[in-house]
Amino acid sequence: MTFLSFLISGLSLGSVYAIIALGYTMVYGIAKMLNFAHGDVIMVGAYVCFFATTRWDLPPTVGVLLAMVVCTALGVLIERLAYKPLRSAPSLAVIITAIGVSYFLQNAAQLLWTSNPKVFTSVVGNSSIKLFDGGLTISVIAIITIIACIIIMAALTWFTGKTKMGKAMRACSEDKGAAQLMGIDVNFTISVTFAIGSALAAIAGVLLCSAYPTLMPTTGAMPGIKAFTAAVFGGIGSIPGAMIGGLLLGIIEIFGKGYISTQLSDAIVFAVLIITLLVKPAGLLGKQTTEKV
Amino acid sequence: MKIMRKASRSKVITYGLVAIAFIIVQLLISSGNISSSLQGQLVPICAYVVMAVSLNLTVGVLGELSLGHAGFMSVGAFTGVVACISLESIIPFTILRLTVSIIIGAFSAGVAGTLIGIPVLRLEGDYLAIVTLAFGEIIKNITNCLYVGVDKAGLHVNFLTDATSLNLSEGGRVIIDGPMGISGITKLSTFAMGFALIMVTLFIVLNLIDSRSGRAIMALRDNRIAAESVGIHVTKYKLMAFATSAALAGAAGALYAMNYSTIIASKFGFNTSILILVFVVLGGLGNIRGSIIAATVLTILPEMLRQFNNYRMVIYAIVLVLIMLATNDDNLKGFLSNLRNRLLPSNLRKGKKGAENG
User: B330 in contact with A at a CB cutoff of 8 Å?
Assistant: First the structure.
C-alpha cells in the first residue's frame, strides 16, 4: 500500500514538473535559450490565484483563469522587453538577462507581497478518497494534477502536430531563416510559444501550491530548477521528453524520500540525471546529432 | 634592454592595479575613512574576486558554461575549516595555519574538480551546464548530511546520522553538525591574506593562459575539432583548466569561511554560482581584469544601494538586464554610436563657430 501511495504522490509531483518542463522545453526548442525566469512566472501565477480566491472571493476556476491571463501577459511582456532585443546575442548574455528577470520577479514579489509565507488554500479543498478500507488515501488534488497533465500533454501534441501555428513553431525551431522565407512570422511564433509556456506555468503554480501550500516569493525557484532538470533529462526541445522526464523525476524524488532518505532526495534526483546524461548525452528522447567537419 | 612583450606588460598592469587598490584601501583603513560595513566586506570581496577569476578560466578561457562553481567553494570552505580546527594544537601560529588550511581547501576542491570533470567534460553546451548545476546541488545536499567531529583519536566522520553518534571521547569537538554547518569558527582571514590569495590566483591564471597549455585550452574553445586534429589532447587540457578553476574556488571558499563565525552548506547553492557567473559575464568573458573589477563593484553595489532599502535588489536586477541589453542589443548599440557621432562633430563645429565669432 505504501508503494502505491508513494507512486501516486510521485506521479502527481511529476505531473507538476512535467507541466513546468513543457514550458521550458518549448521555449528552448524555439528560442534556444534557457529561460531561468520561468520558475518565477510559476510563483506569480500562484500569487494571482491566491489573491483572487482568498482576498476577492472569486470562484477557483476564475482564479485559475485569471492567473493564466496574467502569466501569459507577463511571459509575452518579458519576451518583448528582455529577450527579443538579444535574439542574435551570444547565449551567455541571454542567460544572464534571464537571471536578471528572475531576480527582478522575485524581488518585486517580495516588495509587493512581503516575504512572509502565505498559506495557499487548495483550489479543490482538502478532500481525499479512501480506498481499500482506508488503507490507501489519495488526495483529490493529486488526481486532478495527473489528469490535468494528461490533458495538457494531449492538447499540446495535437497543437504542435496538427494546427498551422504548431507547424510554424516546429519550422521555427528547425530553421528560423528558412521558416521566415516560407512566410512564417517568426517573432509572432516565438511570442505565442512564450504565451503558451507561461500559461502552463500558471496552471503548474496553482497545482503545486494546492499540494504544497506554502507560498513565498522564492516558491518557484526550486521547482523551476527541478523542471529544468526534467526537461534536460527527457531531452531538451522534445515535448514527450519533457513529459517523461518530469514524471520520472517526480517518482524518483518521492521514492527517494520514502525509501532512502528525506535529506538526500534532491541529491538522488540529480545523481540519476547525471548518470542518464553520461549514458545518453542528449537525454532520454533527445536527438543525437553527430558533428560534421 | 629587451622590450617587454605585450602579454607580460598586460600582466604587470593587472598586478599593479590590484596592488594599488590594496594600498589605497589600507591607507583608507588606517586613516579611518572607510565605513565599518564596507570594511566587513573586504574579505568577501577578495574571495569573490578569486571566484570570478577562477570561473572565468572555465567559462571564458575554456568556453564551457559551469553553473556549479559554488559547489567547489563549499568543498574548500568545509575542508579548510575542518583542517584549521583540527590543526589548532599542532600549528599555533595563526597565519601559517590559515595558509595551510587554504592550501588543503584548494587541494580537496581540486580533487573534487578532477573527479567531477572526468565524466562531465565529455558533455557539451547546455548539457554540461545542467550537470555542473546538478553536481553543485549534490555537494550542497551531501554536506547538509555530514557530521564531523575531532578528539584525541583523530577525525570522526559520520553520514546521515546525528552528532551524538560520532562517539567523541571527552574533550572532543563537533565540527560539522549536519544542516547546522560549522559554528564557532575563529575568524582568521584578513584583508592582507585576501590580497595575497588574489595575487597568487592571478599569477596562476595569467601564466596558465600565457603558456603552451593555455593556448591549447583556448584552441579547444575556438574550434574543438580543428584543435583535436592538430593533436591537442581534449580531455587533458579541458581537465587541466577545470581542475585549476575548482582548486582556486576551493581556496576562495576557505578564505571566505574563515571570515565568519558560522557557515552553512546552503550558503553555497545555485544562487551563489549564478552570482559569480554574473561577475564573469559583466566583466567580459576571458577578461581577467574585467572579472576583478566586476566582482568588486557588484559586491559593493548592494551596499551602496542600501539607502534605497527594499528597492535595492529590484534596482540591481533592472541594472543587470539593462547592462546586458545595452552591450548586446544591436539597435541600442547603433543608437548609442549614432548619438556619439552626432554629438562629437557638432561640438567641434560649435567650437569653430565660437572661434570665428571671437
Answer: yes
The CA distances from residue A213 to A43, B76, B204, B232, B283, in Å, are: 12, 37, 50, 54, 41
State the CATH number of the domain containing residue B114: 1.10.3470
Please give the interface size between A and B, counted as residue pairs whose CB atoms are below 8 Å apart.
129
In a domain, B283, yes or no: yes
pLDDT(B330) > 70:
no
Cβ-proximal residues to B218 (8 Å cutoff; 6+ apart), any chain: B61, B209
Task: Find the CB nearest B127 among A85, A277, A293.
Answer: A277
Does B156 reside within a domain? yes
CA distance A200 to chain B (A): 22
| Domain ranges for chain A | 2-279
Range of B96's domain?
A: 6-310
| The CATH number, out of the four listed (1.20.140, 3.30.2000, 1.10.10, 1.10.3470), of the domain defined by the range A2-279 | 1.10.3470
Given a contact cutoff of 8 angstroms between Cβ atoms, the answer to whether A247 and A14 are in contact is yes
Q: How many CA atoms lie within 13 A of B337 on its CB side?
A: 6
ipTM metric:
0.81
Residue A292: pLDDT band by 50, 70, 90 thresholds?
low
Confidence class for position A69, pLDDT limits 50, 70, 90:
very high
B window 44-73, beta carbon within 8 A of A: 59, 65
Number of domains composing chain B: 1
Convert the pLDDT of each residue in A185-226 to its tens digit.
888 999 999 999 999 999 998 888 888 888 888 888 888 888
